[in-house]
Amino acid sequence: MEKIKKRREGKVIFSEYTRGAGINKLKEFSREDVLFELKESGLKGRGGAGFPTATKWMLTAAAKSDKKFVICNADEGEPGTFKDRVLLTEYPELVFDGMVIAGYTIGAKLGIVYLRGEYEYLMKPLQDYLQVMKEDNLLGNNIAGVTGFDFDINIVMGSGAYVCGEETALIESLEGHRGEARNRPPFPVNTGYMGHPTTVNNVETLAAVSHIVIKGGNWFKKVGTDKSTGSKLLSISGDCNKPGVYEVPWGTTIQEVLKLVDAKDTKAVQVGGASGICLNKTQFDRTISYEDVATGGSIMIFNENRDMLHILKNFMEFFVEESCGQCTPCRIGNVKMLEGIEMIERNDYTFSYINKLKGLAETMKVASKCGLGQSSPNPFLSIIENFREEIFNGSHGGRNGK
Ligand SMILES: Cc1cc2nc3c(=O)[nH]c(=O)nc-3n(C[C@H](O)[C@H](O)[C@H](O)COP(=O)(O)O)c2cc1C
Q: Class of the 231-303 domain?
């Protein structure tokens, strides 16, 4: 497999880190110390939803149970995302140290990596790495010489469905069931894997934790904005001369990103993967941040030669394929949106029907059971809105509607 280019040394995730340092720090750090630094850092989950990591860990730590679990979500199924693959390949120490720190903090003895099916080739090197950690007393019993600090990590292959990245579907899949989202509440922090309190965290979130434990919450929040602290790894692909994984401070504008990757004649930027939103030229001053355009890390760049309706169709075909079918808004809604796109393609549509589909898309955002159906309308709504001129009057057969 082609090596992904890491284009830029970053200030946070790609900053210097010594293997095992975060774990060894726990000799002098209590659970409360870890939680304090995490809270101070303002770290929010990097898997897309942006839930504060300190809160998630506090809730899991406070839940009463004889067993607790740490899950590293390495499903990385969002189209256009490949930054977790870079972390697992080149920085496993950051991710695994983060898992051990999580285990120590919430009181878990087992961590499970749910590894994207397509990353099977990573299984062996990662297992070899875990073996080295065991030999160095960074895994196993009395870790780092702390009596009673026992923790182990298993790696489990993912099942190859996009929905299995959703944390409750992931847990179902780990338990050997079909990957379908659970009703919430109860949340995994109380009732997670095998019914026990579980923290599910993204690969990048766990990597950030390792740095925070060593360098402090204050150090972390010096980068980024007030509401979006730290940096973000972006997987940048599409029409640019320097695609790859970049670390940028939150608050970076789309325009700055385009410059970084040497993109020319850009017409559209899809932020946040297929389930994200698509911006046009007038919106390139918007910032990558929780307060403006949030992203789990995928940025797809499209130049003037691209057909936006074709791109939208591609995204919606993906969602029709990947909807688990459990809830009606998502099962039917994605199909209806795709049919609408095909009607536009054939120039056989009315604006009143397209408006109805927009209403359906808005309904899906609130009525779907999980994040898949809640976010799959994003490309439909944003492309129809932001590329209206091209889609309805443009160069694709003179679609003029009725
Ligand atoms: C359809 C769908 C797919 C998802 N895929 C992933 C994924 O591949 N990796 C990930 O970390 N989070 C994914 N998430 C988000 C997870 O449900 C969850 O919010 C995340 O793992 C929590 O970790 P964090 O707090 O560290 O971000 C997905 C969510 C949805 C709705």
A: alpha beta
